[in-house]
């Protein structure tokens, strides 16, 4: 029996579209590179004009950022809030999306349109009513004030509902014949088929919650309940700002985002690739 021939590396010619994507990619990466360069520069080099490359690598900016502020505690708060919101969106948006996609009930279409209409409402309009409800629930200045309003989102319901519509109904009918209930069909039949979509929703929810600044600024006052994005503003003074230390803290705060993006990148591609299949 002959052994299979080894695979040969085939060089793919660059597409003309790459000539357009490469400058766009450089524009997107430039702020990130500049942030890293400022984080390893001296304070005098950040005020130099015209700007240039740092003369050396000032690694102590990172240790100073961790020493001068409870950055680790803020990162832990952000992780608790983000992970809780991700779990809440996966559970509640799955239930709501499945109900809108498969269960026929009175006023279901009108209710779904109302949910979609909330996507067009800016957060600044609902910010004050949300704060009043959070205060009435006794969650002011707690991590619960950051978690509860974000446990379910209209975008998550819409995203999962659209993907539920693409799943063939024959799978559900076969499960019903076997005596499966609605919840069992959802968690054992439907959701395993939608892992790329669930991963996409989880990543988008994590990024939105992790980088949120406006709502924590309003709902939280005490330093022990601050998230990392809110805590970074304490590096800025009224008359002067230590930019190397601030950029070092910003780099540290974005490391989980970079790791999550590279780990879940393939789920984005798979989700888009299967979006048109039915």
Automatic annotation (TrEMBL):
Location (main, coarse): membrane
Keywords per UniProt: Cell membrane, Membrane, Sugar transport, Transmembrane, Transmembrane helix, Transport
Residues of the ABC transmembrane type-1 domain: 75-264
Origin: domain of life: Bacteria
TM ranges: 20-40, 79-100, 112-137, 143-164, 185-207, 246-269
Biological processes per GO annotation: transmembrane transport
Lipid bilayer topology: Multi-pass membrane protein
Protein name: Sugar transport membrane protein
Organism in which the protein naturally occurs: Actinomadura verrucosospora
Lineage: Bacteria, Bacillati, Actinomycetota, Actinomycetes, Streptosporangiales
């Amino acid at each position: 029996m002959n052994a299979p021939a080894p695979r040969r590396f085939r060089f793919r010619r660059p597409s003309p579209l790459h000539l357009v994507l490469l400058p766009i990619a450089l524009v997107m990466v430039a702020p990130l590179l500049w942030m890293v360069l400022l984080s390893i520069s001296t304070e005098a080099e950040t005020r130099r004009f015209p700007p240039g490359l740092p003369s050396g690598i000032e690694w102590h900016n990172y240790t100073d950022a961790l020493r001068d502020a409870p950055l680790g505690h803020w990162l832990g708060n952000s992780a608790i809030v983000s992970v809780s919101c991700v779990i809440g969106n996966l559970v509640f948006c799955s239930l709501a999306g499945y109900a809108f996609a498969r269960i026929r009930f009175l006023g279901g279409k009108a209710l779904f349109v109302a949910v979609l209409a909330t996507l067009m409402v800016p957060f600044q309009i609902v910010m004050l009513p949300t704060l009043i409800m959070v205060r009435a629930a006794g969650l002011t200045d707690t991590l619960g004030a950051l978690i509860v309003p974000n446990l379910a989102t209209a975008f998550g319901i819409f995203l999962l509902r659209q993907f539920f519509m693409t799943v063939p109904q024959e799978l559900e009918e076969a499960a019903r014949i076997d005596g499966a209930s609605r919840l069992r069909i959802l968690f054992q039949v439907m959701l395993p088929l939608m892992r790329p979509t669930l991963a996409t929703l989880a990543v988008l929810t994590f990024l939105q919650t992790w980088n949120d600044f406006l709502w924590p600024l309003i709902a939280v006052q005490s330093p022990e309940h601050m998230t990392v994005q809110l805590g970074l503003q304490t590096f800025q003074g009224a008359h002067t700002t230590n930019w190397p230390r601030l950029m070092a803290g910003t780099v540290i705060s974005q490391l989980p985002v970079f790791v999550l993006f590279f780990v879940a990148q393939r789920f984005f591609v798979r989700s888009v690739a299967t979006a048109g299949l039915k």
